[in-house]
Amino acid sequence: MPFRKAAAALLLLSILSVAPGARAFDPRCPVATEERARALAERAAAFLKSNGAEVALPAFTARTHGFGAGDLYVFVFDFHGTMLASGGWPEHVGVNVVGPDGAGGPYARIRRLAASPAGRGWVRYNWYSPCTRSMQPKMTYVIRVGRYIVGVGAYTIPSV
Fold it and tell me: How far apart are CA 18 and CA 46, in angstroms?
């Protein structure tokens, strides 16, 4: 009988966790904030400057040296649009994420911001969250570091 109660509770919990509007997070996924995203982007940019691409890019993709936790991760691509590191989507490394016509959605906007005189700032777009397993609004802080574009984003999921 205790097994049935536990199974029923588990079933109810799983149903509620994917109910419309619910914040169904993987418990291993702390929710990033815009402040944490910006701080990690600044730290990643400094790490790239001081250690070079040969050390920094693999560290960002592997999420070592504190460069990733939950839905907070570093990505880097160049001005040609080629993804060079991604702690969230390692399968994108080596892929042109902007596309041949330069219309590559959020990455094209990120590249335009990085090419601007300021070379840094926020970009808002929708992206698939590995924690909620759904499309969510996201704010990404972008920093130009020489020929590289460093970004870290935070999903801006409203409280329920």
Answer: 39
